[in-house]
């Protein structure tokens, strides 16, 4: 089994902030496992994230690593995302207080909805298009792969007019990426990034 170098990716511009925020949700560290598979034999002494990112140019978010989970904070909103490697234990309330601004997510995420057309692009850049199961404003998503998925029915377009159906659709995904607002019932699994408001070239 290949062991990844402990090289840290250094990220220095705010422009990559949104991509970085998405990355920890989606990218599985390469420690000899297949992508999208869960750990089957948990080793409490093992570092499941040998390849670490460092934030050296962003003031509004932070990442800290533990052996089997990482903590991503949006420090402007004071939201904490506890990202636990699938198949390993989620830190309990003694370790991480369970507040209404703490969101627990198992990674890698394999089943997500994007309310924002912008997040679709980042997810595809990370090579995680297969995790996209639902999109909003689907007519505005330029990705040919997502459009093909919508046609085949492997990706659903979120319902706009029937809120009951929309709630049912949202129940089927593990995480929701949004630029504005949170759908009812998805408070525990929505990640908001505001790249569409960013005045930089990112927008
Ligand atoms: C952020 O969250 C921490 C822990 O819940 C809390 O102590 C602090 O007051 C919060 N800060 C803001 C600005 O909301
Ligand atoms: C929480 O996890 C820690 C470390 O695994 C353990 O020592 C502690 O007993 C756990 N607490 C509860 C309430 O389960
Ligand atoms: C979280 O809980 C605090 C107090 O318990 C409350 O003031 C705040 O409005 C809640 N925030 C959300 C997003 O529900
Ligand atoms: C809305 O969706 C629900 C759940 O799928 C369905 O039962 C209901 O008939 C739909 N309402 C309308 C007006 O289409
Ligand atoms: C969010 O998580 C909290 C704590 O696990 C739970 O009490 C609450 O019902 C959840 N809310 C939703 C909308 O799932
Ligand atoms: C933090 O949350 C705010 C409000 O939801 C959002 O506008 C911002 O983009 C988030 N920060 C990052 C780095 O995504």
Describe this structure in words.
This protein is α/β, with parallel strands linked by helices. The chain has 2 domains: 2-107, no CATH class; 112-197, 3-Layer(aba) Sandwich (Rossmann fold). Helices cover 18% and strands 23% of the residues. It is built from 4 helices and 11 strands. It has helices at 17-26, 117-125, 144-152, 163-171, and strands spanning 9-11, 53-55, 61-65, 69-74, 79-85, 102-107, 112-114, 132-135, 156-157, 175-178, 190-192. It has a 5-stranded parallel sheet with strand order 9-8-7-10-11, covered by helices on one side. The chain has a 4-stranded mixed sheet with strand order 3-4-5-6, with helices on one face. Helix 1 links the parallel strand 1 (9-11) and strand 2. The protein is globular. The model is unreliable at 1-16 and 28-35 (pLDDT under 50). The chain binds 2-acetamido-2-deoxy-beta-D-glucopyranose (6 copies). Residues 92, 94-95 line the site of one 2-acetamido-2-deoxy-beta-D-glucopyranose.
């Amino acid at each position: 089994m290949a062991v990844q170098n402990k090289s840290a990716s250094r990220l220095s511009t705010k422009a990559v902030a949104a991509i970085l925020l998405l990355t920890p949700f989606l990218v599985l560290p390469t420690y000899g496992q297949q992508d999208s598979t869960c750990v089957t034999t948990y080793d409490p002494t093992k570092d499941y994230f040998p390849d670490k990112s460092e934030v050296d140019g962003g003031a509004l978010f932070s990442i800290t690593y533990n052996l089997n989970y990482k903590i991503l904070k949006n420090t402007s909103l004071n939201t904490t995302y506890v990202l636990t490697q699938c198949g390993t234990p989620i830190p309990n309330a003694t370790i991480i207080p369970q507040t209404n601004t703490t969101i627990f997510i198992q990674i890698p995420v394999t089943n997500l909805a994007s309310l924002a057309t912008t997040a679709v692009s980042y997810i595809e850049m990370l090579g995680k298009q297969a995790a996209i199961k639902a999109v909003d404003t689907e007519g505005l998503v330029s990705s040919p792969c997502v459009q093909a998925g919508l046609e085949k029915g492997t990706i659903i377009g979120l319902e706009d007019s029937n809120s009951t159906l929309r709630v049912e659709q949202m129940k089927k995904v593990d995480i929701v990426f949004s630029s504005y607002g949170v759908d009812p019932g998805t408070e525990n699994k929505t990640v908001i990034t505001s790249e569409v408001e960013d005045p930089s070239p990112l927008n």
